[in-house]
Fold each of these.
Amino acid sequence: MSNPWVLIFVAGLLETTWAVGLKYTHGFTRLFPSIFTLIALAGSMYLLARAAQTLPIGTAYAVWVGIGAVGAAILGIALFDEPATAPRLLFLTMLIGSILGLKYTSH
């Protein structure tokens, strides 16, 4: 897996995983959710670092954060009954557009 865009996408998915995992750790007082969350965090950082060897760091970091933020927000709606208001969904859609824009305008 050497394509930096694949690496950054998987890193973003792992960021979503560890961000949502934080909710299940209960402040890192639950062992297995805490271990799983820390493994996802380490994997996410490693893949971000690998992708940043090729991609500009500003682009790599922004895409990584964006994927994690969108994923965490969507899972927050699905798993934790967070609000899915029209303005919130609009801004998430705009964030997805920004992520795609960064990908397609980066060299």
Amino acid sequence: MEKDYKQRASDIIKVVLFGPESTGKTTLSKQLATHYNTVWVQEYAREYLQKKWDAEGKICEPKDMLPIAKGQIANENRQAQLANKVLICDTDLLESKVYSEVYYSGYCDPILEKYALENTYDIYFLTYIDTPWENDDLRDKPEERLAMFNTFEQALKTHNRHYVVLKGDETTRLQTAIKHIDKLIAREYEFF
């Protein structure tokens, strides 16, 4: 059912780490959750696709996108009930939409697209490619990092999402993110 892809209503501040693979999203998600004494939503696609790789030796296929989206939102809705003022999301459905379009010649399942655009977040942190590439079973585009970054940024612009680009070392990124989240908590944020 389509409700499986929809966020539950919540008053918490929702933050998304967004961007190409191997750009520090998970590291920063954990750091922010620790800083705000809250929970974070892991990227369901990694768990799902690692199991698929281990069991079948296969990578992501178009038929996997909806189960991934469903699992991501289920995790997000579950964690939102446990969050302390702020929920840190290691990804969202808009990121899944971008990957689907990149890998499948512009195709995105209409259900995924609908909820990628309808689900809302308070701020996106777009992680830049100035982190070292870490190879694993699932990552496959080290030579296309800048192009992928530009694709992710264009998606945020096209869909009018409020975002901040995070660059630099872990400490710099963390301090920048905290500064912006603190403004949201204080309701002092003015988007340009």
Amino acid sequence: MTSEIVWRLGVFFAVLLAVALAEHWRPKRQLTFAKSKRWTRNLALVVANTLALRLFVPFTAASVAIYATQQDIGLFNWLNLPFYWQVILSVIVLDLIIYGQHVVFHYVPWLWRLHKVHHIDQDIDVTTGLRFHPLEIIISALIKCSAVWLLGVPFLAVVLFEILLNATALFNHGNLRLPHNVDRVLRKLLVTPDMHRVHHSTRVIETNSNFGFNLSCWDYLFKTYRAQPKAGHQAMKIGLSAYPDAQKTGFWWLLVLPFKRQATRNPSTANNTTQSDQPDQSGQPK
């Protein structure tokens, strides 16, 4: 367990540093808000999420995997598959579950209230990949642990999956300018920054696309893939239309945001866009 934590933290900080440096050297977009304020707010959420998990989830996916193996619980512990296939299939299925979870968080209203904390960031960079409400993190951890229990995911697969998920979430939220040919090839397998940036558009039809965090195949398979933003990566608006001044708000405001009354629709937008393109002023994707 100790080595697992060391590996996870080591890769996490290495990728965080690498993406942050790459953003500085080769940014895709000019940031519109002070990085110091955004980073302080986003990293404060990381601290809050870590504390919330320690307080309210007294187990980890890795510990659940060890227990499931010891007690012969779960699908992969009952199937007579070679160990390497158990690991490969576990990582793939867990990634599918995270994709499905992401879709559900967009379409179930009370879950969207939590998830929109991630989406109101009006710039997108490596720290956006860390910006989640503590309640969303707790629910996500419980879903992941339940999946590990039911599937009987091996400990090694959990460690590999956690490392991959954290690394790719940091990478695909990065404000990175990848060569077009590299992006075109890479997104056939993995979610790239250009691919995921579309998901952070204020246009609802784009917000409700490109849900993957790691493997890109799920968006192709379930028809949620959108290649590029309509306005282009430089002109597209990031965030949610209902929160145009979200960057002026603080850490505590983000914590109570899900419990605030929803904003009302701005009728001035009603005749300017088609229904599929119209930003939802309540912050709720259609």
